[in-house]
Amino acid sequence: MKLAIKLENITKTYPGVLANSEVSIKINSGDIHAIVGENGAGKSTLMKILYGMVKPDSGKIEIFENNASMSSPKNAINLGIGMVHQHFMLAKNLTVLENIILGIDRPLLKNIKLSKYKSEIQKVMELYSLNIDLNQFVDELSVGEKQRVEIIKVLYRGAKILILDEPTAVLVPQEVKELFKNLRNLKNNGVTVLFISHKLDEVLEIADEISVMRSGQMIDTVANKNVSKTELAEMMIGKSLPTPPKRVTLTNEEVILKVENIKLNDGDGRTIFEDITFDVHKSEILGIAGVEGNGQKEVVEAIIGIQELHSGKVLFKNTNLEGLGTRERLESGISFIPEDRQLQAMIMDMNLTDNVIIGRQNIEKYKSSLGTVKTKNAVIESEKVISTFEVKTPGTNTLATALSGGNQQKFVVGRELEDSPSLLIASQPTRGIDIGAQSLIWEKLRNSRDEGLSVLLISADLEELIGLSDRIIVFYQGKLVKELESENVTPEDLGGYMTGLKK
Amino acid sequence: MKMRFRLLSVSAPIIALTISFGLSSLILLIIGKDPYETFKIMFEYGIRGKSIVSIVNRSIPLYISAIAVAVGFKMGLFNIGVEGQYLMGSLVAAYIGAQFSVLTPLHILFIIIVAVATSSLWAAIAGYLKVEKGIHEVISTIMLNYIGTGLIAYSLTTIFDEPNSDYDLPRTQELPETGKMPPLNKFFNIEDLQDLHGFLVIAILVGIFYYWLVWKTTLGFDLRITGSNPIAAKFSGINPKRLVVIAMITSGAFAGLVGLGPLLGYFHRFTIDFPTGLGFAGIGVALLGRNHPFGMAIGALLFAFLQRSAQILDLNDVPKEIEQMMQAFILLIVVVFYEVIRRFIVKQQIKDASKRTDE
Amino acid sequence: MKIIKSLSKRYIIFTPILLVVVVAQVETYSQLTTSGTFGAAIRLAIPILLAGLGGLYSEKTGVVNIGLEGMMIMGTWFGAWGGYMFGAWQGVFIGMLGGALFGLIHAIATVSFQVDHIVSGVAINILAGGVARFLNVIAYRDVSFASSTASPRIQGDIGIFTMPFLAGGKIGETETPNFFGRIEDLNIFLFSDFAGLLLGFLSNISYLTLFALALVPVSILVLWFTPLGLQMRSVGEYPSGSESLGVNVYLMKYVGVTISGALSGLAGSYLVVAGTGTYLEGQTGGRGFIGLASMLFGNYKPFGILMGSGLFGFADALQLRSSQAVHGLLIVISIFLLVLTFKAFFEKKYKAGVLSFIFSAAFLIWFVNSTSIPNQFVYFTPHITTLIVLSFANQRIKLPEKIGVPYKKGELN
């Protein structure tokens, strides 16, 4: 059997970080080969090297048993490698067809032979049993469909090796099944699939061989049939994957947040969500499940005051929040962890002292009667957050951008919790951070909840959602379709409600 | 560590100056002039006693204009309309200020208030258009400049014109004695030199106020956050619309002071010769000084020095427009190098941070 | 009925047009719809169109280009110099090169050095002003006609075209009947005005105008139907995605920005060569920015830009030819605001309705109490039109996704 890919002693360092250290791997042609490891293990860097986006400091690459030096993505494409990224690389405002044929022609001023391309792409779609409407604009597609476009895109360019980076991160269980079906079709047609993931169950379901990476090194490669989930987990981190342990619900009777029949329209009059009613009690974590784009994000923004409701009421500690701006709502005891920390929660080119004030600039602690900023208080608070939440940084004077993702998130969570709020809204609080930071944040959330905090939790990580929440509500197409006690819920159940398959 | 970075930032304007001098020398050579001689003449003329006073005087409106622009920049707003704002402010203030007479400090204060109110109002229009209609302030302020020019031309020839004047060209009535700002020489007893404008004091106060406003107050903090990351600003409770309007009005308010130096100091009335171009020059100084109160002061002095020393060039058969080219070169190059150095510093900081945390 | 329905949806466009035509029936305001006015409108619209198209090429690749004004200034100076030294068409070409050179500078600053786009644009405008003035002084040192703010006249000219039969143009040496001109003279409601419009388009049109107008369909072809255009657009929408497919992001941005410089330069050359015949300081008069406005108004589509620049050109033409006609616009505005008042009340937006009623009344009073608008006001007609148009048009503009965002190779934006 031929080798599709052989990497020998690949090494790559970034300033202060050893991303890949002497990594070697052999991937058989026609296999579905999985590479697992937690966030920060070096999988992404390895893929970037394989795809020509990054040059390794040293090491050898062989594609189909020929020496290759990957100088650019174009180079990789020519060698038959196609990459489907975790965050889709599609232009929203261009059509599916335009996205697929982008970059194929040399940029000379000749006409695009649209019909020729269309028929060629149809042939590819038929061969691999993948279907999509070529004339749609990408921003009109569902997540699963976008992923399909990405796959067609690389297959159309003659890819014989398909690299998929965390492909199931954004899919619900039903879509994952669909994807795996497609992958098996590809395998039957001779395509080699390289599958990056940290979800061991899925990997064990689909892969022929599995390679484990940890801290920039390749630990081992094993055949699927020879390994168990526990063994894989141990190789990945030396201990099994933590799932938030079940604990007794201490939910109080008192209702902290009450949302009644709220409705929101967008600028063109279309309904984003309507008839949403739920409450959050003291000492309770209410989880919101839903595929991205079904209205949850906007509900949270409406509660915070960034979006203006069309109708309905939001009551916080029995006070109607209508008419209050974001600032007043935050100051009345609501804390918010937004889903994109770099864009929404922090100012990257300011230091941590300044960043601790964000969201609470006008409270007496940070604003004097003259209107000046009380920097001394900010320094004290920032240092408290840094120590309590184990944020790794040289000091509070460091710029936010200098911190790693996990530490930035810990800082943000710390800032929001240290305020002793009555209600915490957390959106994707542990997205993209290492296991250590994740456990810490889970622990802090649970402790605060036990001490009386109410939490509204949005997460795409179904295990996190089920593990942390006392109750879960599900959003689908802008409506609240189900409420569940999290005791006996499985990710498959949730997935069903999230995609409208279950009612 | 921070010192190291500060020094690096300062190197950008020095590099820009050097390259600019180099380019200008090249051009001078091409047109057959000796660069060394040219610069020598300029320099010698520029450091003469009389020149220094003139330079300081010239730099005053440049500095205030730069501060007006910088207030906007700090928030990510581009107030290109300082030009129109200061002219409107000066015109209205000149007209109203000439209608009565009270004690000098009071009179001058009143003139200042009128100018600032007018210019703020004019700037507020652009703020409103941005917030309610989504029109980018670069376009709206530039259009308002042209509209302002038309309005000024009209009102100067009709309602604001000096009544019963035998002077041919339109102009406002002269300010009474109480409306004139005395030169500083009176206080310091300096003879023989050209008058140092009294408005210098106000310029310095403006600089200090600007520093306090932007770096010490919560409002300034909000401004800087919004300028750096408008989305996070919104999530932190800042009302972006309100802040845009406040920022534009503040910027416009500073703009109103720009023309008052000349008005109160030596023009004493608004005429068609009233100095123009200060609004645009201020943009250059703000960019050069990187919106920092001290940096802009140096920048203003530098540009004023170039302007003044270039005056001698005509007498030596060198086109004095070379100075404008130099200014423009400095501007473009410094802007490039600021960015280059900024990125370098950020990279260094990241390196330092990860090094430290590995320990 | 269907036609009326779709028309009433676009009422913002059609009502003013209808009102203008009606008001134009009155003798004093007849200039509103004469062929002379329309001819001037086209002449004045072209620089705005070219600047707008220039802005389009740049912004489609994700680079904001505020420096269009400066590039246009370079076009005027180099166009005048080239025209003086060699001839009209050479002047045009050299003007384009001048604009393209400054476009290149903007590209280097924003793409390779990642300078903030607007800051760079502002710096370019300042640089262009200084360079133009300086060059004007040294290039014409020994020529008597020049000052620091004006250049001597260009040699020759571009040449004008008038369509035979429809507009009375010559075939060889023989005159032909002027079909549209006849209709215009007949003063029939709507038909004569429309004839005036067509006549304006077909008589005394500079060849350069035709060239500029041709660039509209050419731009559509290039941007939407060639691989080059697709790559340019993709770079403005999703640069990192494009890069991963092998598109040379930096190169595409350079191309887009340099073309935008060339087109602005062409706009400048046009001002000189098909207009005054000399370089004059300040002759661009903010048209670079108005071009940007027409790009926004046209929602980033070449045809829309054509419409927008036509509108601004019309406002400019009125200002130039007949301040009487501008006075006539006052009543048009008043009535239009009245229509808006009704619409606002119908939609129960009382505050907006009261506001537009007050303004409507104000314009009416102004109209009745004056016979003409002061020159100084007329001078800024195009600028205030820009503001008004942008106020109304801003709702559904679709900017390229990654506009204004500096791109670093290898980054995942």
Describe this structure in words.
The complex is a heterotrimer of chains A (503), B (359) and C (413). By secondary structure, chain A is α/β, with parallel strands linked by helices. Chain A is 33% helix and 25% strand. In chain A, strands 6-7-8-3-9-10 form a six-stranded mixed β-sheet, with helices on both faces. In chain A, helix 13 packs across helix 14 and helix 14 runs parallel beside helix 15. The relative contact order of chain A is 0.10. The mean pLDDT of chain A is 85. Chain B has 359 residues and is an all-alpha fold. Chain B has 15 helices and no strands. Chain C is mainly alpha-helical and 413 residues long. Chain C is built from 18 helices and two strands. Chain C has a two-stranded antiparallel ribbon with strand order 1-2. The longest helix of chain C has 28 residues. Chain C is globular, with a radius of gyration of 23 Å. The interface between B and C is large, with 41 and 40 residues.
The helix content of chain C, as a percent range, equals 55-70%
Mean pLDDT of chain B: 85
User: What's the main sheet of chain B like?
Assistant: none
User: What fraction strand of chain B?
Assistant: under 5%
Strand and helix order of chain C: HHHHHHEHHEHHHHHHHHHH
Question: Which of globular, elongated, flat, extended, rod-shaped describes the shape of chain B?
Answer: globular
Placed side by side, the strands forming the largest sheet of chain C appear as 1-2
Question: Which blocks of ≥5 consecutive residues of chain C have pLDDT under 50?
Answer: none
The value of Rg of chain B in angstroms is 22 Å
The major pleated sheet of chain C works out as: 2 strands, antiparallel
Q: Give the assembly state of these chains.
A: heterotrimer
